[in-house]
Peptidoglycan-recognition protein (Armigeres subalbatus), 195 residues
Amino acid sequence: MPTFGRIFVLVISLHAWTVLSQDSNGCPNIIKRAGWSASKSTNVTYQIKPVQYVVIHHTATQSCNEMPVCKEIVKSIQDQHQKNNQWSDIGYNFLIANGGNAYEGIGWHRVGAHTRGYNVKSIGIAFIGDFTKDLPSAKALRAVHKLLQCGVNMGELDKNYQLYGARQISATASPGKALYNELQEWDHYDSSPVL
């Protein structure tokens, strides 16, 4: 086989391996920070993994399905967190859209600013929208379950992680009544947070 043919086969093989290795973790479609034009973080603090806790929020903004709208919402949340709150970055580790995409906030193994007293020991996942009366879409709910399993598979989350709604830990309506009621049916939900 000519050298060019060998290189071509090698490139195809490496590409296939990369796709398979990503899929083997069972991750949803994750839009990386560059994909939503994230501003640079002014400070990064790393977490010790695997992380024991997951805190679910909602953003209390409009919800979104299509990527262009979702990207604008995520970017506006980051701008608010950095400019108004004076945080180093967006507070959430991930944000979930009704269209089924997960948007990388600060991502895995980085300390967020989503739940005071829990930031250093939890991953904060926010559903984009207000889920007081209605649930997120079926696509969004599937995406968060895939994201959680992905975190376990990658060693980012403890396999026995505990899941909370933000309202269990701080004085907030988040993640909304409808979503909070749904959370209580999920595996790993814990009705008694460790404070």
Remarks:
- The chain has one domain: 30-184.
- The chain is about 30% helix and 15% strand.
- The CA atoms of residues 132 and 177 lie 5 Å apart.
